[in-house]
Structure formats: C-alpha cells, structure tokens
Specification:
The chain is of the alpha+beta class and 381 residues long. Helix content is 17%, strand content 40%.
Length: 381
C-alpha cells in the first residue's frame, strides 16, 4: 500500500479537498481515520500514519462528500484550519531600499554582477501601457513622451524588470561581470521587437541573458534572472525552478491585488507569446505525502523535500492558475483573441525563462491527481 495523500486547501475559505491516493488493489478495503493532526490509513497488509504539518489542522466533524474517483483515490471535502500565511517571496520594493547597500547576483550561477550598490531613490514605474493611456486622454501633444530613465543614483522598478544607470556601477575588482552582445540578427527579424537596437546583457560565467541595454548607460535587468541581497547578508543560492515559480507567483499576486487583473499573456523578449495564464486564486495551501513506497522517479510538488522523508508531509503556499501553452502555434486563435483584449495583461520575460516556466507548469500539472489537471479546455496548476 502506498498510503499517500494530497490536500488542497483555501486559507481564506478554510475549506479543503483531501485525496487519499489510489492504493494497490491488494490493499483494499481501507480503514481511514482522520484526526486534527494526522491521517491513519489501515488495510489488511499494513497501517500508515501520516502526520500533518504543524500549521495545518483538520476538523474531522466537518468531513463531507466522500467519493471514490478512479485514478485518483478517495476524495473527502473537509474544513481546514491553517496558520500558514508565509509570503511567496520578498518583493523588490522590500529588498531595494533607498540608502541601503545591495549586491546583485546572477540567479543561474551565482556570479556577482554588481557589488555594493546604493541607490538614493527607488521608485516604481507607471504601468506598462501608461504612455498609450496618456495619448488617449490628451487633446494635444503628449507631454510625457520622454522615456523615463533613472539617474546615476536611481533605480526604477517595473513589473518584470528594474532599470539602473550603469554609469555608477561598482563591479567586482579585476573582472567584468557582464558582456554586451548586439542583436544584429534579431534587429532584422521584423517589427515584433519593440527596440531593434537593444543589446543583451549576459552573465560572463554562464552566458545567461540578464537583461538589455535600453539606451546609452541604462540597463534593464529582468527580475527572474537576478538575486538581490543586502551587502551584509551572506549569499544563498536558490534552486532555479523554485526561484522562477516564486518570483512569477509574487508578480501575479501583486497585479491581481492592485489592478484586478486575472488573465495574463506570458511573452518572451523576442515578442512571441509562450503561455496564456488565468489566475484562479492566490491563497492555496498544498500538503502532500508520498506514503510508504513512493518510487524515486515520480515527480511531486515537493520533489526536493520529500525524497528522503517519504512518510512526512510537505507544505507549500501557492497560487492556482489555468494555462494554455502557445509554442509551435498551439492555441494561436486564442492567443490572438487575448492579444486584442484589454482585460489581458502582458508580462515580458527572457524567452528562455518563458520556456522554463512552461516546463515547470507542465511538471506541476502532471504531479496533480488526474481529476485536477484540466478545467474546461485549460490545464490546471
């Protein structure tokens, strides 16, 4: 008997769906006992006790709607009390503070890109389409036509990037940590790129694209490619998959909160649409246990933490989304329709990161119980 379980809970609603993963046929029938802090699964072959994380408690008297779903296992609707309210990731506004020294690292390899940089001003940029909105409301020449550029001691924060002035950058002594590569071939590819004369900023060690030079002395760094930490804090490497998930999830949370935006078009810096994403909720708490005999080649939502502790349960704060992949002209009509819809918000990242995100969504979707993988024509995650 595997005895694994999967719990999807809503923190605000205090409700959850518990799935006892489908056991081996020889393990039936099962006797399942639920306590506030544990789940006990007993069969004629074995008995397994799964302890829930300390921040999650089940209310046994509220268990409702017990149903067996082929391929999944036993579904139980229940009330869940949760103390978990951890933030997905710190925002740039919280990390980049005026008059505080920071170090910038390449997220992929950990190379130091900018050393001990202090900004006198850290300011948010207006929304991405602010200039177009001004043109709609002005009956004369746009007074804000000049592009907003940071001065030497400024840092401007966008939705998926931040702008700095390179004139004051203090790089690691004795080494140049960024290379500049002119996109000659890209500049001739058509009108999809907004700025044909942009250059790429790449990490000298791993050649990852970190950003672009948008004009002389002004660099746009993408938030998915850089780790920023206070100078006095010791650098800790974050796994790439975990970082990309966290930073994009935080971006979705902020936009949905301040702009009531729930549909997103994930685009690459090459102008192509890679993913259409529909945000369902931002207060999901996931708990998973692999049980007694989880095979080592099974991808789970908590792949790193559960490998060596099969009987323990892992917990994860998450956002829940539906998505459509758009690579190789998939869902082209829908992508075109969303592209003309003012209710859809575009988020631009390096093309390689868009493909990484698509792989993460696909693997996460495949790890869900089969009944939770699709909704209408969308895939769930």
């Amino acid at each position: 008997m595997e005895g694994g379980m999967f719990l999807e809970a809503r923190r605000r609603l205090q409700r959850g769906l518990l799935i006892v993963r489908e056991p081996n046929s020889g393990s039936l029938p099962l006797d399942i006992s639920v306590t506030p802090s544990s789940l006990k699964i007993k069969s004629c072959q074995a008995c397994t006790t799964i302890n829930l994380p300390a921040e999650v408690r089940i209310v046994p008297s509220y268990c409702r709607g017990i149903q067996y779903v082929a391929g999944d296992g036993l579904h139980v609707r229940l009330q869940v009390e949760s103390d978990s309210n951890a933030k997905l990731v710190s925002t740039l506004c919280e990390i980049l503070k005026a008059n505080e020294s920071c170090i910038f690292y390449c997220q992929t390899c950990g190379e130091m890109i900018i050393k001990d940089r202090t900004f006198l001003r850290v300011l948010p940029l207006p929304s991405e389409n602010w200039s177009a909105l001004v043109e709609e409301w002005c009956c004369h020449a746009n007074p804000f036509a000049t592009v907003l550029h940071p001065q030497s001691n400024d840092c401007f924060l966008g939705e998926t990037y931040f702008l700095v002035n390179s004139g004051y950058e203090a790089h690691v002594p004795g080494a140049e940590k960024v290379n500049w590569e002119t996109e000659h071939s890209a500049s001739q590819s058509g009108s999809a790129l907004k700025s044909k004369e942009n250059t790429r900023v790449i990490c000298k060690r791993c050649k990852t694209m970190l950003g672009e030079a948008v004009s002389s002395g002004i660099i746009k760094y993408y938030i998915t490619e850089m780790i920023i930490q206070p100078s006095e804090k010791r650098f800790v490497m974050i796994p790439r998959s975990q970082f990309v998930q966290s930073i994009i999830a935080q971006c979705l949370v902020e936009l949905s909160s301040c702009r009531s935006t729930f549909r997103f078009s994930i685009q690459g810096h090459d102008g192509k649409v890679y993913i259409l994403m529909w945000l369902l909720n931002v207060d999901t708490l996931l708990v998973e246990s692999l049980g007694n005999s989880a095979p080592s080649n099974v991808f789970t939502l908590f792949e790193d933490s559960l490998r060596s502790h099969a009987k323990s349960s892992g917990t994860w704060n998450a956002v829940k989304v539906l998505y459509h992949p758009c690579i190789k002209n998939r869902n082209k009509d829908l992508a075109d329709s969303w592209g003309n819809d003012i209710g859809v918000h575009s988020l631009i990242f390096p093309s390689k990161t868009c493909l990484e995100l698509l792989l993460i969504l696909s693997l996460s979707n495949a790890s869900l119980p089969p009944s939770l993988r699709c909704m209408n024509s969308f895939q769930g995650d």
